[in-house]
C-alpha cells in the first residue's frame, strides 16, 4: 500500500456498471478534463461499492476530498440500488466512509453524455452523416453493455454562447420492445415467456445478445422460456466477425437492426441532431454495424425518415467515456459553485 496523500485538486471519479467497477483520479486544476491512474476492477470480487473504492484508493495512495461516481441505476433519492449488480448504498454513508467533503452521484449514461463535448475527433467514428458536423444539442446518447443506457445532452458548443451543456439522465433502456417482422416476433414471444414484460434492454445488452442467439439457433424451449445452450456474447461477436458462423452473423445482424430501431426512436423522442453510440459492445464491430440494417432501421420511421437523414450518428471509441464524463460533471459542478 502506498502512503496516503491528499492533494487538494485531485478528485476521485468512478464508473460503476453491472460487470466492471472503473476508478480513476482527475485534476480539477488542469485546463481540461483528465483521467489519471485509471483501473478497472471486477465488481464481483467486492461486496460493495465502498469496498471497491477503498481498494482503489489504497492502491493509488490518495485521499481525495471530492468524488463523482457514475452508477448503472437511477440516482434519485438518498439510497442508490444498482440495476444489474446487488450493490446498494446511501449517499451520506458512502461520503462519510470515503472521507469526502463532497460526493456527486450520477447515472452511468449521464456520465457518458457528459463526456461527449470533451471527445476528440479521433475518439469517435461516424457511421452516418458528416465527419466534421459541429456538435449541437439535443444529442441522444445510448448503448448496450451489461444493460442499455440512454441519456440526452442539451446545449451547444459555440464559443459565442459560452459552450454551455446540460445532461438529462433517463431510464430509456427500459422502454418496451417493439418487434418488427416474423423473426423479431419469435424472439419477443420467447423473451415474454422467460421474463414477462420485454424491454429494449432485455435484447440490447450482453445477455440479450446471448439469448437472441439461442432463440435463432433453436436452442430454447418456447413453452417454458428456458434455454439449453447459451453462448457468451464475446464468443458470438468473435464468431460473427470471423465470418464462417452463419448463426452468429444472423444474431449480430438482428442485434444491429433492433439497435437501429431503438436509436431512431430515441432521436425522435429527444428531437436529436446527433446520436452517439457507446457501451462495451458496439465499438467492437463498427464495420459490421455499418454493413448491417442498422441505418435502414434507424431511418424507417415513415413520414419522419427525411428528418432522421439529417441526424449524425457516431460511435464513441474512447476507452473510458464514463470516467471522462464523471470528470466533466465535477468540473461543471465546480464551475456552478464559483458563479
Low-confidence stretches: none
Strand order of the largest sheet: 8-15-14-9-10-11
Quote the beta fraction: 15-25%
Count of extended strands: 15
| Multimerization state | single chain
Largest sheet: 6 strands, mixed
Textual characterization of the structure:
The protein has 339 residues and is an alpha/beta fold. It contains 12 helices and 15 strands. The strands form 4 sheets. The chain has a 6-stranded mixed β-sheet with strand order 8-15-14-9-10-11, sandwiched between helices. Strands 3-2-1-4-7 form a 5-stranded mixed β-sheet, with helices on both faces. Strand 12 (220-221) and strand 13 form a beta hairpin. Helix 6 (206-216) crosses helix 8 and helix 7 (233-242) crosses helix 8 (246-270). It starts with 9 loop residues before the first strand and ends with a helix.
